[in-house]
Amino acid sequence: MSFLGLASYYRQNLKAKSLYRICDQQRVFEMRQERIKAYEKIRKALTEAPLLFMPDWNIPFKLYIDACGDGLGAALHQVRIIDDKPTEGTVCYISRQIKPTEAR
């Protein structure tokens, strides 16, 4: 699990639900195809240049939110002019799983 420990610093920007589920001490470890794919996606994301914008407090923000039975998520965006074209980019992502008591 040391890979997940290293990647957890970037947890807000990475999708790894299937991998974090195996950290539960109540579950038996099974390395399934979906977990291998999640691992590869995280590894790729950690080795590529970040695509997040630094916040510019002089430009309006756009907030996208979503909720479902499994979790909550939000993305904060801004529109910048890049190469003479308006480009919408992410400032930050945030998400978390819904706890069993919250799902009731």
Explained architecture:
By secondary structure, this protein is of the alpha+beta class. The protein folds into 2 domains: 1-50, no CATH class; 51-104, Roll (Ubiquitin-like (UB roll)). It has 4 helices and 3 strands, in the order αααβββα. The chain has helices at residues 2-7, 17-21, 33-47, 100-103, and strands at residues 62-67, 71-82, 85-97. A 3-stranded antiparallel β-sheet has the order 1-2-3, with no helix packed on it. The protein is flat and about 50 Å long. The two termini are 30 Å apart. The model has no long low-confidence stretch (mean pLDDT 79).
List keywords for this structure.
104 residues, alpha+beta, 2 domains, 4 helices
**Low confidence ranges:** none
Oligomerization state: single chain
> Helix segment count?
4
Structural category: alpha+beta
Helicity, as a percent range: 25-40%
Biggest sheet record:
3 strands, antiparallel
Distance between the termini: 30 Å
Q: What general outline do the C-alpha atoms trace?
A: flat
Taking Cα atoms only, what radius of gyration do you get, to the nearest Å? Answer: 17 Å
Determine the CATH topology of the largest domain: Ubiquitin-like (UB roll)
Protein name: Reverse transcriptase/retrotransposon-derived protein RNase H-like domain-containing protein
Domain Reverse transcriptase/retrotransposon-derived protein RNase H-like: 33-103
Pfam family, one: RT_RNaseH_2
